[in-house]
Each structure stands twice: as structure tokens, then as C-alpha cells.
Amino acid sequence: MANKETIVLVDRKICDNLMQDRDKWNQVYSIALEIPNIARDVGLLENELVFIGGLACYFHLRSAFGMREQKWRGTVDIDVVAFGSGSVQRMIEGFKKSAWYSKVKTRKSHLDDKVSCSLSVNNWPGSQIEIDLYGDRGEHTGREKEKFSSINLNGLNLSMDKIVNYPPQKITQGETSFYCPDIRDLILLKWVVLTGASSFRPKDVCDLIGCLAVAEKIGIKASDIYTLITSHVYGSSYRKRTLTGFSSIFDNYSNISGTREEKNKWPGVLPSKRYINNLRNSVLLN
Q1: What is residue 46's DSSP assignment?
Q2: Running DSSP on this structure, what letter comes out for residue 2?
Q3: What is the predicted pLDDT for the residue at 237?
Q4: Residue 250 covered by a domain
Q5: 36: closest CA among 112, 98, 115?
Q6: H-type helices in the chain, by residue range?
Q7: If exposure means fewest CB atoms within 10 Å of the residue's CB, which of 117, 124, 217, 285 is most exposed?
């Protein structure tokens, strides 16, 4: 998590600033549908590949509400966690062998467990698809190869058995199945990104509000969401960022739900006002 003081703002035009270029989003979505096949081809088990980030939010929205990809905000990149020994390098080799891609470029991150890939797609000349892979890079300094079983992401330890607190969830879409974090773990992962950033990113607020709608739909209490988030907050500076994050969610939700025009433009699903008020009450009472 960033050490800088978080700047979380209200975006009065948040609905206008969220929609990604539709052509780009369609390309990213097509590649996402193919990634589980590549993982299978390189020997990863089905549950060893877990989508995180914005795409995981979309898969949950589609599963809970039947939301079509054309209505969602879209994303320009893909974030996946790959568990198992040598998982990142195996996925990179899978991309290189795939008939989909003409060129695969990689670059290391300052994070120990991350490699970013830039893929040139044969069917889309000039198009670059960015994929962030989190997993074993094959550089075993201080960790024996056979013992590689967890990944550190923004201070949270992710494992195949429990992404944070819960096992990953299988979501089936047509003939393709994806593994994503349980919605409670996904909320926590997105929360760490929102409150750890040094600048406001409307897409993080969009994803969190959508995840809250999913949580409400499947019967998770708003008070349990509050407990989940605050149980991972330590120290006064983190508590301050957490309160600022809640304020951002509440204020942007009020802005979006305040008029029919904004609600109609919202590229996602909104939780009920009652659910947001219950979450707000949990914050105020603690």
C-alpha cells in the first residue's frame, strides 16, 4: 500500500469518465475468454488461474445480474494470478506458442511476483493487449521451487486455497469457466487499491460499488462488509485512508443515484440505498 496520503475525491461526471473505448474492450474481452485455454495447454489446473481486477468484478456482475459486456465500463488490461511452480513463465510460453499472437513482450515489475506482458494480436494489426501476471517468476531467491504456493499483492497474501479469506469461486460463462476471488475477497482487493492510491481513480469506485451490489444480491450483510474491510486496517494512517475511502463510496453513490439521468448512464449495477445506508451506519457506529 502506498505511503503517500490518499487523495480520494468525488467525480461529479463519474459516469461520463468510465466507459472505455468499445473496440478496445471487445478485444480485451475476447483475449480474456481465451486465457483459460492457454493455461490448460501449459499444464495449469483450472483453479490455478484466477482473474482479479476489473474483469473479476465484471464476471461477478454477469453471474449475479446477467449483465452483458456491452453495458459494462470495460477495461484495457487483464490481471490474473497464476499459482504453481514456474506459473508466470509457463503462461508467457503459452502466449508465445498461441496462434493468436504475433509478438509477446514482457517487462518485470518492482513487485516480486509480477510480470507485465504486451501482446500483439494477429487479427488486430497495431493493437496491444496488456496482461499483468502475478505468480512464480522462476527466480527462487529464498523460496524453494516446490514450496511456492502464495503470492503477495499489495500487502495481502494470496493462495490457491484462500485468495485472502475464502476459496476462489468458479464462474461459468457459456462454454468457458473462470475462477475469480469470492466477492468478499474481491472487495478487499479492490479496497486496498482504492485507499492505497495517491490519486483518485473512478474505475476503482465503480468496481467497488458494483461489488457491493453483488454482495447485497447474494445476501451478504453490509455490516459484514464493514467488518471485513476494517479487520485488515492497522495504524492511524490506514484508518484515516479507510474512512476517506468510505466517504468516497458514499458521496459518489449519492451523486450517481441522485438523478435518473446519472443512473441511466451508470456502466454497472447499483446496490440499494438501504444497503448503502446500512454500510454507512456501520461506519458511524464504530
Answers
A1: G
A2: -
A3: 66
A4: yes
A5: 98
A6: 22-41, 53-65, 87-97, 183-196, 202-217, 222-230, 236-257, 260-265, 273-284
A7: 285
Full residue range of the structural domain in which residue 153 is found: 22-284
C-alpha cell at 45: 489446473
Q: Copy the grid coordinates of residue 12.
A: 461529479
In a domain, residue 11? The reply is: no
Does some domain include residue 127?
Answer: yes
* Pairing verdict, β 150-153 and 156-159: antiparallel
Which residue in 192, 194, 190, 191 sits closest to 180, CA to CA?
Answer: 190
* Percentage of the chain lying above the pLDDT 90 cut: 63
Domain total in the chain: 1
In the structure grid, which three cell numbers stand for residue 194, read together?
Answer: 482504492
Q: What is the pLDDT of residue 118?
A: 96
The residue length of the chain stands at 286
How do 128-135 and 77-82 pair as beta strands?
Answer: parallel
Task: Quickly state the pLDDT bin for 4 (edges 50, 70, 90).
Answer: very low
pLDDT in tens, 22-40: 999 999 999 999 999 999 9
Binned at pLDDT 50, 70 and 90, residue 239 comes out as: confident
- For residues 179 and 79, give the distance between their C-alpha atoms in angstroms, rounded to a whole number: 12
Cell of 52: 482479479
pLDDT in tens, 35-84: 999 999 999 999 999 999 999 999 999 999 999 998 999 999 999 999 98
- First-to-last alpha carbon distance for the chain, in angstroms, is 23
Q: Which amino acid is at 43?
A: G
Q: Is 10 within a domain?
A: no
